[in-house]
Amino acid sequence: MEAQDDSLFDIVKNGFEKEDEIRGSGLRLGGDKYFTLGATPEELHFKCGAKGVFCAKTKQAIIIALYPDTVQPGNASKTLGDLTDYLKGLGY
Q: For the chain, how many structural domains are there in total?
């Protein structure tokens, strides 16, 4: 899916609803092709070289976290997970 054609938010929102489609198409962002590494109804993970994108869904929010090649994917995932858990704990 091309982020220039649709908003990134809409692409991610649809990715949560249609995991098979986002797995097959990946994500184009800023001219780069990000491959889908994981897609569930609550989390998406895309990677392009050493940089990537993690997305998480709560009841009322979608969090999109882009990490550069200077950040380890595990650290980005943990930070996003902590934020997601915090928001869910507040009822979001």
A: 1
Structure tokens at 86: 């915090």
What's the predicted TM-score (pTM) here? 0.86
Q: Under a CB-based contact definition with an 8 Å cutoff, are residues 42 and 56 in contact?
A: yes
| Residue 69 within any structural domain of the chain | yes
Residue-level pLDDT at 9: 86
| String of DSSP letters for 43-54 | EEEEEETTEEEE
- One-letter amino acid at 23 equals R
> Rounded mean pLDDT of 4-27?
85
CATH number for the domain harbouring residue 80: 3.30.450.30
Neighbours of 51 (CB within 10 A): 18
Is-contact 73 64, C-beta < 8 A? no
pLDDT at 2 over 70: no
